[in-house]
Structures are given as structure tokens and as C-alpha cells.
Amino acid sequence: MRKVQWGVLGVARIATTQVIPGMQRGELSEIAGIASRDLPKAQKAARDLGIRKAYGSYEEMLADPEIEAVYNPLPNHMHLPWSIRAAEAGKHVLCEKPIAMSVAETRELIAARDRTGVIVGEAFMVRTHPQWLRIEELVRAGRIGQLRYAAATFAYFNVDARNIRNILAYGGGALMDIGCYPIKVSRFVFGEEPVRVAATMDRDPALGGIDRLTSAILEYPSGPCTFTCTTQAFPNQSVRFYGTKASIEPEVPFNTPKDRPSHIRIDEGAAGTTIEEFPACDQYTIQGDRFSRAIREGGAPPVPLEDALKNMAVIEAVFRAAESGKWEKP
Questions:
Q1: What is the rounded distance in angstroms from the CA atom of residue 56 to the CA atom of residue 37?
Q2: DSSP 2
Q3: pTM of the predicted protein model
Q4: How far apart are CA 233 and CA 101, in angstroms?
């Protein structure tokens, strides 16, 4: 099967250090070009990563007929306009999470996808990692009994005012950057949508009011998921699902290392603990090839826009709940 020819919008760190190298190892994905509004930056990234083409503008890349699909790792506030422009240029689009700045923007992107007929999806790499597929499978099969609740954390420390994750107008803050992960994984492991949400949020006045720490309760029909995300604490990440018979958790849930095996732990208390191991893999390689296969063979991408819309609806509900001090419905 012929590899899909991909172009990359911008030289974001996540792209140059994680996603591009991962996709370059894929069987179905080839990074054919990279664009920047600063041509020397694009040329340097192309040299460093062995990419054939460098463009001095996003428009130039979108006009290239060789480019079949676009990976969009631009800042959050640029996800919608450039994903739409790529779709209107006839390119399939894999856009970084969160897919947009709001539910309304996500609906605009869905309309653009439907109008242009291209494939558009959200880049939640966790959705394709074998450890998460296995957790979903085991919970569905009743391995931990009936799922009752989940608890998660995700944190790192960054107070650089120049960093896009700390700029409110760019969609910065803890909830949009990393809180979207506990929302995403709890939604697919529960196999349900939250019926209501409660939240508290601490905003940083020195960084324009971004949320530096958000805690939320997502009430699913089967039970709650509680999580805390923060951009100003010691780095850590964890997710644990509790059932009536056991609990289950991945060793490293989100930034899973690609250079060593990953593990999930099933704790049955007095009955003992089971560790399942998965061979080392790059979740960005898997994500890219799954998307490329959808392009070549048809079908949905790993995270279609309909799912991205539901995730964004929960994010919005968390923001509303933190403001109102009341339960809010997504």
C-alpha cells in the first residue's frame, strides 16, 4: 500500500520531537513537507528530520498537490482556521487536541469536513496505544467487576509567560492542555458520556488568568471520575479505574515511553496482583498509520470529530461548573 504523503503545519516542539519521528517510522505515513511562516525554521526542521520539502508559508504547503494529508500541531486558537483551510484545499487533517477552542468551533469544523469530503480527526494518541485498548477490553469483559469510579491526575510545572500553554487567548491553561486527557480516557473506558460535571478552578493572575489547577468530578451513569490537572506542580500522571472486584491502572498513562515496555496493573487485593506487559511501541507511529489507513481504505479515523465534539462539550461544562459553583450538563 502506497504511503500517505503528509505535510506538517509549523515547527511545534510536539511535532519535531515526538509526532514527526514517530510517523516517519510508520508503514503507511511519509512526512513529505513541513511549513513555517519563517522559511529558515522550516528548512532547519526539514534538514534535521530528513524531510524533502520546506515551505515558507502554510498556504504554500496547502497548495502543493503532492501533500495528501496535514498534521496540525499549531496553538489551540489556530486549530480551527487552519484545519478548515487544509480541508478546503482537499487535504485530510489530523489536528492536535483539543480539536478547537469551543463546541461551536468544533461544529464549524464538522461542517467543513462534510462540505469538503475529507477525513478530519483529533490527535489523541492514547486512543491507539495497546495498553489503553487492553484496559478498555478488560473493563468491558468484567475483569474488575462492575466499574464504579475512576481517579486521575496529570501535572507538570511551567510558569513561562511566553509559553503558548500559558497564554489565555491561545487556549492555554491546565484543562485545555492536559485535563482533556482524563476526560478522554474516562469517556472511552466507561463507554458512556458524563451526565453532569462539578469543578473548581484556580486561576493565575500573573499569567492572565489561565487555570493553573483544575479539579473536576465527571458523573457517569456507572459512577464518577475525579481528576486534577495542573501546570504548576511536580510532574506526575496517573489513572486508576476501580471496580467491584479489582482495580486497573496503566504504569504511565499518557506520555508512555516508547523505548521500553509498558505495563498495566490489576489489583485484586488478597487475591493478588497481575501485571500485563506490552512490547515497546511509539503511540505516534500507531496513530499516524491508523489515520493513513483510514485515508487509503476508507472508514473513520481513530478519533473522529463526533467524538472530539463530545470531549469538547465536557471541557466546556467543566469551565462552566467552575464559574457557577453548580453541577453543569455537557
A1: 5
A2: P
A3: 0.97
A4: 25
Segment 290-314 shows an average pLDDT of: 97
Verify cis geometry, omega within 30 degrees of 0, for the bond prior to 304: no
Mean pLDDT score, 205-227: 98
Which domains, from first to last, does the chain contain?
4-124+285-302 (3.40.50.720), 127-280+312-324 (3.30.360.10)
Rounded Cα distance, 157 and 152, in Å: 17
The pLDDT, as a whole number, for residue 280 is 98
pLDDT at position 128: 97
According to the model, what pLDDT value does residue 311 have?
98
CA atoms within 13 A on the CB side of 281: 20
The pLDDT assigned to 155 comes to 98
Measure the CA–CA gap between 24 and 256, rounded to whole angstroms: 18
Can you read off the three cell numbers belonging to residue 57? 508559508
Query: Residues 6 or more apart from 191 whose CB is under 8 A from it?
Result: 136, 140
pLDDT of 202: 98
Cα–Cα dist 229/216, whole Å = 9
